[in-house]
Amino acid sequence: MAGRPSPEGALAGRERVVALADLYGPLLTPRQREAIGLYYGEDMSLAEVAGRAGVTRQAVHDLLRRAVGVLEGVEGRLGLLRRDEARAVLAGHLLAAVRALRAGQGSLDELEDLARALEEDE
Questions:
Q1: What is the pLDDT of residues 2-45, one digit of tens each?
Q2: CB under 8 Å, gap of 24 or more: what pairs does 91-98 form?
Q3: Which CATH architecture has domain 7-78?
């Protein structure tokens, strides 16, 4: 039986929505962008967002659900966030390989392989 997400999982989910909104926010309606910004970006409660917008908490919940659905749908088709995250991981590995090489513990072949993988992703 699935329960509530852990606090770490909830935070990761909030960060993901903010990252998606940064990438794809212009595709949302102004009301959706505002609700996402207040709820996920400024960490306001549903009641606080509803009070500011003059609507019910349920209306805000539905608006957020639809907005997040739009963001996730666009990410599913374009994959820009997924690509950025993969590149960040690869860049971290590349940096670690450079540090290892400087310390006399790495190999130039490993560094070249990582650089090639980063170039292929462009």
A1: 455 565 666 679 999 999 999 999 999 999 999 999 999 999 99
A2: 91/118, 94/118
A3: Orthogonal Bundle (1.10)
* Spatial CA neighbour of 110 closest among 102, 83, 85, 122: 102
CB 107, CB 98: distance < 8 Å: no
| Residue 99 amino acid letter | R
- Considering the entire predicted model, what is its pTM? 0.76
- Cα(62)–Cα(72) distance, rounded to whole angstroms? 15
Backbone angles phi, psi at 82, to 5 degrees: -60, -45
User: CB of 90 within 8 A of CB of 114?
Assistant: yes
